[in-house]
Amino acid sequence: MVKYKYEGYCSGQQNIRLRENFGTAKVYAQNAQSVLNKATGFISAYDFTLNPYRGCQYGCSYCYAAAFSPNSNMRQDWGNWVIIKQNAAEILKKELQSWYKKNPDRPPSIYMSSVTDPYQPIESKEQLTRHLLQVMVSYQPTLVIQTRSPMITRDIDILQHFQRLRINMSIPTGSEKVRKDFEPKSPSIPARLKAIAKLRYSFPYQENCDIRFSITVTPLLPTLPEDEANFINKLGIVDRVVIQDFHASNARSLIASTREEALALKQKYAWWYNSEQQSYRKFKNKLIAMLPALEIMEGKEGFGYE
User: Fold this and answer.
1) 46 burial class (0-12, 13-18, 19+ CB within 10 angstroms)?
2) 41, 49 contact by CB (below 8 A)
3) Fewer beta carbons below 10 Å: N end or C end of the chain?
4) Which of 111, 5, 129, 7 minimizes the C-alpha distance to 49?
5) Cis peptide bond upstream of 113, omega within 30
6) C-alpha dihedral sign at 226, 298, 214, 40
7) Residue 295's beta-bridge partner residues?
8) Beta carbons within 8 Å of 289's beta carbon, 6+ residues apart
9) Could you tell me which of 37, 36, 13, 15 has the C-alpha nearest to residue 83?
């Protein structure tokens, strides 16, 4: 396998040049050999994962995906670079055609995305995710979209044409103070709640269409006591709420785990993390008590389409 060197992160001759700076992020463009990758581990219930980008400008402190950076320098600078898979739409079309030749009666199930956010800021310019949706809608896969970005509402016109779709909006905390500590580059909580509400009410009833909506409170971060009841009540806009604690820590550089940056932040919220399992159970019990009509699911099970 070719090991690429990215300008600004490797010494010697670079074979991937810096294309531009977009906000605080270095932007690179690269052709992908494949965009539908076999789903494994936490999302093994799907046939494929689909990641339009490599890297993520949101750079959340706890994000396990930093472990899959091209090199250690880029891992340390997580959130400040992104690689555009510039031929992704063309490759996706070929891969979906190949799938249906082998499986003419079974649509594939696709999770978008597992190690990036398909609606990170560069998407506003590149519209790569939008182009991928335009390709997919003709093939009607079972599609789950995972994002924390209100930008997804831009694509309602395309999303309305999917027959089997679940949209997961990631909102790990109900407190803006906590969000700003753990994921300062990400959109605000009110903006995300407004976006999922807009999505929820933008899909007219169509027979034989199954459109679902989740809020993933993952990893479950502290919510300040004064914000908790209001936050939980607002989660009632969807049909499923998913909770999950932090990934286990692991010192090995290529293992998906909670980053040291987030582990250090946990000390600031000792009132929650000193009794982490008890805090988790209390929050879960409040969800069940206050949202009796919703699916309250945990971990891997909650990320399935069904």
Assistant:
1) buried
2) no
3) N
4) 111
5) yes
6) positive
7) 240
8) none
9) 15
Read off the tokens for 215.
């809020």
Query: How far is Cα 59 from Cα 182, in angstroms, rounded to an integer?
Result: 10
Measured distance CA(293)–CA(279) in Å, rounded: 23
What pTM value is reported for the model? 0.94
For the chain, the maximum distance between any two Cα atoms, rounded to a whole number of angstroms, is: 59
pLDDT band at 246 (very low <50, low <70, confident <90, very high): confident
